[in-house]
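Recap quiz, item 2
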Amino acid sequence: MTTPARAAICRGNTEPFAIEDVELDDLRPDELRVRIVACGVCHTDMAVRDEQLPVPLPVVLGHEGAGIVEEVGSAVTVAKPGDRVVMSFNSCGTCPSCEVDAPTYCYNFFPHNWSGTRADGSPVMFKGGENMNANFFGQSSFATHAIAHEANTVKVPDSAAHIPLAQIAPIGCGLMTGAGAVLRSMKVRAGMPIAVFGAGTVGMAAIMAAKIAGANPIIAVDVNDGRLELAKELGATHAFNGKNDAIGKIKELVPQGLGYVFDTTGINSIIQDAWGLLAPMGICGIVGASDPKANLTFNEAEFMGGGRRVMGILGGDSDVGSFLVELLDYHVNGQFPYEKLIGYFDFSEINEAFHASEDGSVVKPVLKIGEE
Ligand code: CXF
Ligand code: ZN
């Protein structure tokens, strides 16, 4: 017997999202049905809407969901009915990357996250009896209810019981990516200088994490002065506008070079300028969505000679479960104050929430979908 739900259907960028009736499939052993309380909006949702990623349309998006578990399959151990949970991306659990707790590099990422169905091709959602593409990032949380999986569900720890789920929801994607890039991928060392290019959700999370790691100085670069002010509130010791010779100013501030540069812009010229700032053994982390046809060039001798590294990063090398709990601990302690990035919208305002992200007026829109 299917479960009725309401979901925001994405039919591409020529039509607004429309909230319509759908039905969820019965649960498989490793699945949970979650009543969604809130879901963050991420640029990856926009990339799918704009058909820049190979996700079939129409589809139910949303991959930063949080809610209350209603029912679990027979093999689920991560949570039980009534638990508060937050969801992230899905993974197979058995490939060589998953085996070493690196699920962001899951060999089977596409079928588990972007195929519109379960990995075995079966639908998780129907609309008027017809199959509907869903299971986006193993959730599709722009809906009143979602089917999630053992691998992408995290029980909210009791230490965060007082934090509203609407505030917890966005932790499973961009925030995790920026913080994980600093703490897990690049393993930023205390006392070392870092520059973060782009002060969106990922860049801001990287700045907060750089402060946690004890990096110094922490330099934020963006073209929006408002964002630079916020970056300073969150931990940046210096903030330079990219339109005003930020590279020259960084060279002046740290003449010996930077231990780390982190690019969230995906813009070739910025990445090339950024890695030109690296000190010996410096690491350039790249995470921005770039033009798939773009290639970077670099001077081989400069890289090899100084032991410099370029590191492609997905999802901040998060292992999902323990890293999200660690980030929630930092949040509860006030060391990861990402609530300053959030603007809340009602579910019915989903189109306004997307506009607010795109015009830059809100760093992290969060849709409030149901009661806690
Ligand atoms: C993802 C990319 C793959 C790992 C987790 C995060 N980005 C989503 O927007
Ligand atoms: Zn995302």
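The radius of gyration is 20 Å.
The CA atoms of residues 51 and 236 lie 35 Å apart.
End of item.
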